[in-house]
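User: For documentation purposes, I need each entry recorded in a consistent format: the amino acid sequence on its own, followed directly by the corresponding structure tokens. There are two entries in this batch. Please keep commentary to a minimum and don't merge the entries.

Assistant: Recorded as requested. Entry 1:
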Amino acid sequence: MTFKTKKTSLASVIFMFIFISLIAGGGFVFFSPMFEKNKPTIDIQNNIFWNLHSKLSIKLSDDSGIKFYKIIFKDGNKEIVLAQEILPIPSKQLDLQIDPPKLDMFYKKDKAIIQVQVVDNSKWNYMNGNIAIKNINVKIDKKKPTANIVNNSRYIQRGGSAIVVVQVKDKNLKEAYISFNNKIKFKLTPYLKESYFVALIAWPIDIKKFKRVNLVAIDKANNQTVTKVPLYIQNARLKKDNIKLSENFIKNVSTNVLEQSNMQVPQTLEEIFIYSNKELRAKNLKTIKEVGDKAIDTTSIIDSFNIKRFRRLRGSKTVASYGERRSYYLDGKKINEAWHLGIDMASIKHAPIKISNDGVVVYKNYLGLYGNAIIVKHSLGLCSLYAHTSTQNVELGDSVTAGQKIANTGSTGGVFGDHLHFGIIVQGYEVNPLEWMDSHWIKGRITKVLKNAKKQILSK
């Protein structure tokens, strides 16, 4: 073999080595996580409202880790760096709370751009990493919504109801509601004309202390106005009742209710009753709350609320009242307690149940402790409940009229005997039916309030 041949072979080997190395290196660069090519993700809407007071939330994420970010406020005249950081240890996710720019009190611009620049820890792009840039259009809104009380019921008691008429105005309004103790929200229904609303509200029986009822209005820039609803508190007469449980009742009634509700039946008598009275009751109340929430229309404008007093079951006697705090005893031992949230009326067996106000059937089903139950919606989130029925004369979705027979009394559910459990529901909460069975209460606390509010609204 000549020297020339050897030289050619060596060159071929070197060339092949270089070629393979380039292929391998290219494959490494292309497939290695170190050289991932995905740009960082910037999680914030493209168009936002900002009041220049609250912090701005921005989420950044990247598989290889974020090593740098910069956030700039631009309004056409000014460019202000709101935040920037080089991270010594790259982070795969950042939840940023960005402070607003420091501007003088006379600042008048209503539009701006927030530019977010992010660089990840990838070795792609000649070791410089992937770069993501996002421009967010900002609508500057520093004005709080208008939120006024037009009129409202003067009094409310624990377990009772009230009505509130309000005015809420804001071109960028996000939500408005009535809050009870900053804990419960009651929806508003448009009333008479634009920017006016009405709401039936309740003081739920299981909330002992009354703190405050507010009208809350929040716009898209998170400007918030809170206006107190002036309400006087009336004492409620709450009764305590001790109920002795028998082995026969738990074995036959409580067990049957759990089985029909497709719930597991515990082993001991005590466990069976507690499970039905606590867990099943909570499930039943959740269903009532959901039905009540769906029964209110918050989109259509109403101009009236025509409700008559709800009448008693004909010829009946009250066997249990609303607001009783029941303590249950088994073999002399207190094992559980619960609120009774309606009025139990007993008459003849399978007595006819006639409805007092027009409405629409929004629930007809077996409801655990309530047995075979019917719920009828009326207006403004007001519903009436008819429980423990034996037979029903209506179907889901039916329109019913005052005086119409809808069912017969019975002993379905967790009861001792044939009767009607009659309840009134306000936006999902069972309230004291006695108020809604009193024509003087309805006139003074509801009708008169709406009448006076209507005069004020239409005079403007």
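Entry 2:
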Amino acid sequence: METNSETVRKTHKVIIVEECMKTGGIGAELVALINEQLFDELDAPVLRLSSQDIPTPYNGKLEYLTIVQPEQIAEAVDKMMQDRI
């Protein structure tokens, strides 16, 4: 959490990306900790990108549709940076 705290104090923004399901994933715990400990440092709400809340399919094509893809991450970063104006 110390490293995360230093980064939040530097950038004032957070995007958490995980392959876990959104409900009950580690990202949820990180969001809670950041909001509890660093809320005043944030310039925007914490954004969380994660897999859909379904069991990850074994089929590769279906798995691709359930997990976060690089394009989604890039779009989220672009949107967060545009909102800073």
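Summary note for entry 2:
The chain has a mean pLDDT of 90.
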